[in-house]
Amino acid sequence: MKTLNKNKVLWILADIIIMGLLIGLDQTTKYFAVLNLKDKPAIKIIDRVFELHYLENRGAAFGMLQNQKLMFVVIACIMMVVVCYVLLKIPEERKYAVLKICMLLVGAGAIGNLIDRLANGFVVDFFYFVLIDFPIFNVADIY
Predict the structure, then answer these.
(1) Which helix (H) or strand (E) holds 125?
(2) Any catalytic annotation for residue 125?
(3) What is the per-residue pLDDT for 52?
(4) What's the CA gap between 87 and 80, in Å, rounded?
(5) Which of 38, 39, 76, 104 is the most exposed, fewest CB within 10 Å of its CB?
(6) What is the pLDDT averaged over residues 29-57?
(7) What is the mean pLDDT of residues 103-130?
(8) pLDDT at residue 62 above 60?
(9) What are the helix (H) ranges across the chain?
(10) Residue 141 annotated to the active site
(11) Active-site entry in 15, 26, 116, 141
């Protein structure tokens, strides 16, 4: 069995810390959205363009597949296995940095929304582009 060298272990720890920080940012913004937006009118940031609008999303992107919690949990777990596998296999070379960043963002986004689904049964969304009537989304969705 191949052993991990010290450098690889440090990269794995760095990945875990970065992903933890990204998840923390997502969860913090959702906490403040619940605190400041739930059961309140939307907050207009740029009139007729962008506002903060609380929504409890029980579906996937754009509200599709409502109330399919188990399916979303399974998909998120599969995504995390794939993300972890890719992160472990990516060579520590500069040319792979973008791929590594993408994997960290995808993983953090999946975990951020998974936390909401498991804790609440829904995902908290709050960013809304009124100008183009884009579906309401959150920080994890941006990842």
Answers:
(1) strand 123-129
(2) yes
(3) 98
(4) 10
(5) 39
(6) 96
(7) 95
(8) no
(9) 6-37, 69-89, 97-120, 139-142
(10) yes
(11) 141
